[in-house]
Amino acid sequence: VAQTTHVSKVYKLAAAEVVALDEVNIVVNEGDFLALMGPSGSGKSTLLHLIAGIDRPSSGTCSVLNFNLGTMSESELAKWRNQYVGFVFQSFNLVPVLSALENVELPLLLTGLSSSKRKAQAKTALELVGLADRMDHTPRQLSGGQQQRIAIARAIATDPQLILCDEPTGNLDSVSADAVLEIFHTLNTQLGKTIIMVTHDPHAARAAKEVRYLEKGKLLPAGEKPKD
Amino acid sequence: VAQTTHVSKVYKLAAAEVVALDEVNIVVNEGDFLALMGPSGSGKSTLLHLIAGIDRPSSGTCSVLNFNLGTMSESELAKWRNQYVGFVFQSFNLVPVLSALENVELPLLLTGLSSSKRKAQAKTALELVGLADRMDHTPRQLSGGQQQRIAIARAIATDPQLILCDEPTGNLDSVSADAVLEIFHTLNTQLGKTIIMVTHDPHAARAAKEVRYLEKGKLLPAGEKPKD
Ligand SMILES: Nc1ncnc2c1ncn2[C@@H]1O[C@H](COP(=O)(O)OP(=O)(O)OP(=O)(O)O)[C@@H](O)[C@H]1O
Ligand SMILES: Nc1ncnc2c1ncn2[C@@H]1O[C@H](COP(=O)(O)OP(=O)(O)OP(=O)(O)O)[C@@H](O)[C@H]1O
Ligand SMILES: [Mg+2]
Ligand SMILES: [Mg+2]
Fold first, then answer.
1. Shortest CA distance to A5 belongs to which of A44, A39, A47, A45?
2. Which atom belonging to ligand 2 lies closest to the Cα atom of B143?
3. pLDDT digit string (tens) for B146-193?
4. B196 C-alpha to center of ligand 4: Å?
5. Does residue A208 contact residue A35 with C-beta atoms inside 8 Å?
6. For a designed S-S bond to B102, which of A28, A69, A200, B98 qualifies (C-beta 3.0 to 4.6 A apart)?
7. Contacts of B140 in chain A (CB under 8 A)
8. Which one of the ligands is nearest to B174 CA?
9. Which ligand is nearest to the CA of A41?
């Protein structure tokens, strides 16, 4: 379902080069639930963005859901993402001028559903994360953990095949975190969704089926952890 | 050092009222290291912002470092904060167009130090959080956990008497988190700084001397936890 081959990402700055990812080969199969862990700055968000086509590698190929992302234009990638992928950003990326409900509805706008069907589907997603009573609040009128849960609701509202989430429980107390992990578990085991979850939280990682580690841009072999 | 008396915060929205804080009476003494915990949306960030004078209560008084915040103007509060308080925001609030070093230097601009002394002090703070090699990166060129650590460096660069931090380890792996908690421990036990840390992470809470819980805007008595 998601495969990167010899993928590297190098940022060239004025004074130096930063190798964010170094020859990463990863294979994720349909129905997998993978937790991606590793030290701060080790390249996790970068890898997730490449798999979503939000960013392009400096070298190597990304093949996701049988699409070769490198051959697609920006607008083709945006359409593809809207149809198949749900993405939860590390910094949420909510639209400040829209309400929680409108934010969750956003990806549904391109689906051809009627307005009432869209609102109903968005409300269901909000109920799943326990925020139906906050649907008219704008992001500024929500707590950090509530914003995070809106971002999660938005990512699942279109019922995507592939869910990519970057630190989805970082701002949540254990009760809210467990509720979110329960949703992911159901989406994965009962609806066959593929999930790649970047996390620092060992408790969240335990909800996944498999854990892989990045260290300084390199993907460690299965079963290996970074040296402390 | 920080005392709120009968403090409430009510948000009035078009359709309803949200009671974010309800009659909170808290006393924090000099040299305390308090962890403030509670469910998502329970009012933790709101209380921290009131103690910092970044927001004003709907009723009640906030007395911090012997200043009655309610009697001070916005500019007086800004000056006071710059001199006495270090604040780490839940969403970091870094300036996008400035480098990491310039972001950390920002609170030092009003201290009357020379430019070379400011840069040296900012660099020391960056070294403490392990990011001296990223000082020329802008926030966009940093990982989530690196941005969080820049926000922490900025909060301690002026050597403030009171440190208020909102989820300071939420985006950090355990090694980076422990390094940050170690800094707080040193600031508290060796330099006598008072620290109020909002956190969802029980591991971070263990670094504090005391833990208090908020639930639905109410401060629970010492030793009491929210019902699950
Ligand atoms: N400007 C606002 N208008 C209306 N309601 C608001 C506003 N800001 C915050 N709230 C509400 O106030 C409550 C408390 O918010 P606060 O940010 O203090 O929670 P928190 O304990 O920090 O949560 P988290 O752990 O998720 O960060 C939340 O229910 C939130 O929806
Ligand atoms: N635009 C950029 N220019 C230069 N360097 C960058 C840029 N974006 C990211 N980096 C660097 O690439 C590295 C990997 O970043 P990435 O965001 O993938 O890390 P991460 O594993 O997600 O970290 P965290 O756990 O802190 O979120 C970091 O060292 C960061 O400084
Ligand atoms: Mg990241
Ligand atoms: Mg908060």
1. A47
2. 17
3. 999 999 999 999 999 999 999 999 999 999 999 999 999 999 999 999
4. 13
5. yes
6. B98
7. none
8. 2
9. 2
> Is A142 a pocket residue for ligand 1 (Cβ < 6 Å)?
yes
Checking if the pLDDT of A228 tops 80, the result is no
Interface touch B170/A170, C-beta < 8 Å: yes
Ligand 2 shell residues, CB under 6 Å: A 11, 13, 18, 20, 38, 40-46, 90; B 134, 137, 140-146, 171
Q: Which two tokens stand for residue A107?
A: 């990806």
Ion ligand 3 nearby residues (CB, 5 A): A 45, 90; B 143-144
Paired tokens of A209: 């089926």
Other Cβ atoms closer than 10 A to B29? 10
Burial (CB count within 10 angstroms: exposed 0-12, middle 13-18, buried 19+), residue A65: middle
CB A215, CB A48: distance < 8 Å: no
Report which DSSP code applies to B225: -
DSSP state of B65: T
Burial class (CB in 10 A: 0-12, 13-18, 19+), B116: exposed
d(CA A180, CA B200): 15
3-state secondary structure of A213: strand
Alpha carbon of A210 to ligand 1 centroid (Å): 34
Contact A176 B39 (CB under 8 A): yes
* Residue B13 beta carbon below 6 angstroms from any ligand 1 atom: yes
Give the DSSP per-residue string, A104-168: HHGGGGGGT--HHHHHHHHHHHHHHTT-GGGTT--GGGS-HHHHHHHHHHHHHTT--SEEEEEST
Cβ contact A86:A158 at 8 Å:
yes
Tell how far the Cα of B162 is from the centroid of ligand 4, in angstroms.
Answer: 19
The set of residues, in sequence order, having a beta carbon less than 8 Å from that of B147 and lying 6+ positions away, is B92, B94, B139, B171
Summarised one tens digit per residue, pLDDT across range A202-216 is: 999 999 999 999 999
Gap between the Cα atoms of B104 and B88, Å rounded: 12
Strands (E), chain B: 2-12, 17-28, 33-37, 59-64, 67-68, 85-88, 162-166, 194-198, 210-215, 218-219
Identify the bridge partners of residue B198 per DSSP, sorted by sequence position. Answer: B36, B166
Q: Which of A36, A40, A167 to mutate to test the interface with B (most CBs of B within 10 A)?
A: A40
Q: From the alpha carbon of A137, which atom of ligand 1 is closest?
A: 4
Distance of CA B124 to the CA centre of its chain: 20
- Closest-lying ligand to the alpha carbon of A172? 1
